[in-house]
Amino acid sequence: MIITKxxxxxxxxxxxxxxxxxxxxxxxxxxxxxxxATSAAKPVIRLGFIYHPTGAIQNVWTPAAEGVGFEFSPTxxxxxxxxKHVNVLTGLAQVxxxxxxxxxxxxxxEGAVWLTGVHPKKTEGVGIRSxxxxxxxxxxxxxxxxxxxxxxxxxxxxxxxxxxxxxxxxAYTNTISWRTPTxxxxxxxxxRIVFERLFGDGxxxxxxxxxxxxxxxxxxxxxxxxxxxxxxxxxxxxxxxxLSEYLxxxxxxxxxxxxxxxxxxxxxxxxxxxxxxxxxPENYEEHCKLMxxxxxxxxxxxxxxxxxxxxxxxxxxxAYPNIGISDGHHSLxxxxxxxxxxxxxxxxxxxxxRMFAYYLGKLQSTPDGDGSLLDHMAIIxxxxxxxxxAHSHHDLPILLAGGAVKGGRHIRxxxxxxxxNLFMSVLDKAGVPVEKFGxxxxxxxxxxEV
Amino acid sequence: xRWVLIAVTVCFTSVAAAQSTPAKKPLIATxxxxxxxxxxxxxxxxxxxxxxxxxxxxxxxxxxxxxxxRRGEMPPAGAPRPDPAxxxxxxxxxxxxxxxxxxxxxxxxxxxxxxLNRAEYSNAVRDLLAVDIRAGDSLPVDDSGYxxxxxxxxxxxxxxxxxxxxxxxxxxxxxxxGDLTIKPIEERFLPLKDPPTQVPAVSAYRRSVNRLExxxxxxxxxxxxxxxxxxxxxxxxxxxxRVNMPTGAASFGEGIHGDVVHYDAxxxxxxxxxxxxxxFQKEDSKAELEGPAARRNQAEGRPAQLETDPLPALMDFRLxxxxxxxxxxxxxxxANPDIAAVLITGPFNPTGRGETPSRSKIFVCRPAATKxxxxxxxxxxxxxxxxxxxxxxxxxxxxxxxxxxxxxxxxSDFDGxxxxxxxxxxxxxxxxxxxxxxxxxxxxxxxxxxxDHDLASRLxxxxxxxxxxxxxxxxxxxxxxxxxxxxxAQVRRMLGDPRSQALISNFAGQWLQLRNLATLKPxxxxxPQFDESLRYSxxxxxxxxFESVLREDRSVLDxxxxxxxxxNQRLAEHYGVPNIYGxxxxxxxxxxxxxxxxxxxxxxxxxxxxxxxxSVVQRGKWILENLLGTPPPPPPMDVPELKPKSADGRLLTMxxxxxxxxxxxxxxxxxxxxxxxxxxxxxxxxxxxxxxxxGDSAIDASGKLPDGSEFVGxxxxxxxxLTDYRDDFVRTVTEKLLTYALGRGLEHYDQPAVRAIARxxxxxxxxxxxxxxxxxxxxxFRMRRTPGT
Lengths: 450, 789
Known about the structure:
The complex is a heterodimer of chains A (450) and B (789). Chain A has helices at 35-38, 58-61, 106-114, 134-142, 171-174, 191-199, 207-232, 237-265, 284-300, 329-333, 339-364, 419-429, and strands at 2-7, 11-12, 23-24, 46-51, 67-68, 86-93, 151-154, 178-180, 183-184, 306-310, 367-368, 371-372, 377-382, 398-401, 409-418. With 450 residues, chain A is α/β, with parallel strands linked by helices. Chain A folds into 2 domains: 11-202 and 271-429, 3-Layer(aba) Sandwich (Alkaline Phosphatase, subunit A); 206-269. In chain A, the strands form 4 sheets. Chain A has an 8-stranded mixed sheet, with helices on both faces. A two-stranded antiparallel ribbon of chain A has the order 2-3. In chain A, strand 8 and strand 9 form a beta hairpin. In chain A, helix 6 runs parallel beside helix 9, helix 7 packs antiparallel against helix 8 (237-265) and helix 9 runs parallel beside helix 11. The radius of gyration of chain A is 22 Å and the shape is globular. Chain B is α+β, with helices and mostly antiparallel strands and 789 residues long. Among the domains of chain B are: 15-104, no CATH class; 185-352, no CATH class; 504-724, no CATH class. Chain B has a 4-stranded antiparallel sheet, with no helix packed on it. The two termini of chain B are 26 Å apart. Strand 1 (2-7) of chain A pairs antiparallel with strand 2 of chain B.
């Protein structure tokens, strides 16, 4: 029942982030505003990955015409005002999400493969394994530059009991981010916790107090690392594995502390402002928007350059009473050809896209350097499933938004072109050197001109 | 520590044993090898390549054979089958060989390093420091495997999790010691209330009920509405309790319609956990409901809720049940007093750290002079570390923690310095991870009995989801815990301790999937009655029921057959039981056999339904998986859809649609088992109410399983489960409990232990304590294997 702890420390209100937002100044790790804004030379490219579960109703998703000046399809209609920032990419596939001898479990695979391009190991628990996801590859690259290497966010509580999909661990459906092939990253759905992760949980923004807190954190981490060393000496390799996850986490936070200490020492700090969210909004769309607001904040303050967001779990069976749909999404996708069910799935698809449009709009209205945040981003939106009813993993619904790539086009690729080729292109745009990723065969054609 | 080595006996098939077995080889050649041979390998099994007289060599395969033959599933229907008595003798002999081999050369498995999950972290913090704030709730949700969230293999660590651990450690240590520098914070509590609705059916339902009930056992009799919350007050200080009430006529929650009026009580509170209540007097509200204004509204046909003239009502602020302030609040007649939120803010003007259970637990000594400080700190830190690490502590454990103390003592007082050491303990890998170290002198791949301290942790995390208490640690220090009589006595003590509540919320909550009730979203158009009060009551009913079986040490069979349940007015109306009033759930003897046991409980019936209808298949699958331990395999790739219409265009009932589905041999294998079971429960709708019709068609709740057993309705199904399928049910409960107790998935080599536990429990009519004791005494619980081979 405890919903929030709100600091009563000094509050500062700033404009520009959102009219209704206001937040207390908090201590730990308060960032400099938009470090990217100061560099006139080459703007920083941020990467976003937004997951749409269970495919889309294709005939209302895919625009009829190709090339420039195409007409937006019914599902994508809400993106019309953002036309010049959006590409619709048709024909991409994720072959690794197919059964390949593993039988059922297409929804676990659509989640596990989406950002990894790697066929996951079928297991309920022991030895979960997929691949490092593209967001984490980018996070590793940019991680040096920002306090947080990446943010992983969601909207749906992990399934709390029972199996998730046909003999696959829930880890495969709950997340799309894999730090290593064996370490899935949890998706945080509570906006308050995301907020605290970004802006700290302390009570004072006084640089001296902040400095002391950072120093104390550092000594705590030193202690934990030392304890692991002592503990490991008598353990076998498999046991050491678990503890080395802990050690990696320590290193990650140490790096962040170092960054925060540097920024804390900087004399001219300005802070974006937003009220610390008190709870998870009951209404789905409000929840989504809040999570998008937090992502905009994180970019704006240059706390991270990579975010990953799941609109719902892989294979989610959530109902959307906010748009009058009380059946579960997954159940509806197995629509038996019934027009009413197909229409409902299409409505859900369109709502997800509307949420995306909200996010793009927000990014567009947030200044960054000589343009807007949206100008300096590459955001991939889509699903690891093409047709949810058929459990197919080709003709994926995929959008590419942001100024990193010239927009306004509907591009159709040859059948079975790997989605991972798009990741290769986007990593290249962002200056992340990668030779091969998952099942990629090279970069996508027609995305090169900016 | 003592390590008991188990001699590995290789030669286990004595001549006598070999002679007593029926001739297995010819039996297998006749009935099995036709399909299961090296060429065809049906089901990946070649029984001509393995030796049935030495089953231990291929125990994984023979365990599969045993299970299939025991259940009569093999040889398949239509194929030549041996006489049932011969098959049974074969199975018994096979089982005995496997069990003998396992006894001679036990394989206890090897649980991985285990990070504490959220529930375990909360309880460990509570038991270590007496800070009962469910600290784990601020950590990210754990992944689960095998149906439980305490599976070591899937509990991973990440930077975001570690950050939460660090923040939570700071908060907990400050609350535990009482940090005088804590700044005021606001904590907000929202009443359990239904969200606003735009669905007319829901509005109509809400208008039709106006429950005048006490909303919590913590609130006094005679009160109605209101809110009761537990809050940890960090210091002796002043605090402000604020009640927000909406002013708009249609307000359902703060922030939605905006306008709230607030009432404050500022009062001194002693540090520690207190119950804050806000109540309204029932007498007043009754008078108003029946009074002139209400009557006038009724006469004019106006819904009373829309009356907006403010009338005075009395609202009491209570601290630990004692009234501390009374205020007049305006209220709409006929409507429940509506609380949008209760906010507790503080501390202001702190007067001291106070004397809290936390502080008496931490400060086992008090330095009288400066020279006493370091020895006292050493004692405090050692005592806490031993409990937190769950083993005797060494210099190398305490020294780095004392460094925190010494460093902090330069700028803060003694208590503040202890606080920093506590914060470090709470992020130590020795606290956050359960690590069982192999003894040095055990060879690779060998089984050994875990030491007494590891045993103490296994017990406490199994039965309490928490750290061992001082008694367990003391017995482990004395190497007495592993003595059979001591161990049994400890199991009994632990089951009787309130901390065993963890078995209900964590084991039963996940086994029976009660936790999924929290996110259940029935379609409001179809089920406008499904409100938060029902959601809460359904879960309470099953939890109280499971608790009664546990606390009264009943047979696990009572989970299916008990003729009592727990109801409040809300549930009684839901089930159609008369004469139950009020919000409190109490024990009620059932007259309707259909409501007996778990299968008559709305919680389970609802979590196995779709938002707008029941699911015969999901209910059948749930029972096969969770009660009979025979989960159906996932459907094949090219599964055909159900056809809602027949070839000639007639609309088909669900039963007819599924019958058609089963006509397909690809589907019939599983659906012939799932569907009849699910149909037996069709008299319960998707939120668990009884019904005789589904739409216009009468419910047919009869079913027949492939083995020929027939039954009708819930009572018939329950009876079948208790007779023909009793052993499967007991085995399944055992397997689920063992999975939970070990924190790992079960393997073929655990099956002898599962059988041994069930056999031992059978001698005491499967009482809960017998089952738990047998489990604690089993090979996988008492032992561990070193890595290798």
